[in-house]
Each structure stands twice: as structure tokens, then as C-alpha cells.
Prior knowledge:
The chain has 83 residues and is mainly alpha-helical.
Amino acid sequence: MMNALSNSQIDEAILSVTGTSWRKVARVIVMTGEILGDKLPKDEAVLDLIADRIGALIHDGRLLAQGDIKKWRRSEVRKPDSN
């Protein structure tokens, strides 16, 4: 299943496709899946896994969110300003 890929590897991929501008959660999930490519299983559960990791990054303060992140197309995330 997911043992080939750690949460930190998924987190790094998520952070690599987010910047300090708002981006739709759905887009971040798709872009993260494209980066990780063959390392991920080919099923829809992987989308939920990436979404869960986005939630963990928000909880840890590594990403900011606006909107209900469970509604991927109606919410956005970004990195905090580094000022």
C-alpha cells in the first residue's frame, strides 16, 4: 500500500507546489499526485491521503487555509509569508 512513501515525502511534494499566493486545494492535490506519480497507488484513496496531509500541514502552521478544505474546489491554501 503506502509504505513506499512517507508522510514527510508527501508533505514535501505538497509544499513544493504551494507558494505564498492562494491556490485551490483541488489543484494542489492534482499537482502533488503528478509529482509523486508512480510512487502512489492508482486509486482515489490517494487523493484523500494527500488531502489529509494538507490538513496536517495546516494544523502544523506550515500552510494557511481559507474556506472549508474538505470542499477542495471551494477552498484555497498557501504558505505563510516569510516576513
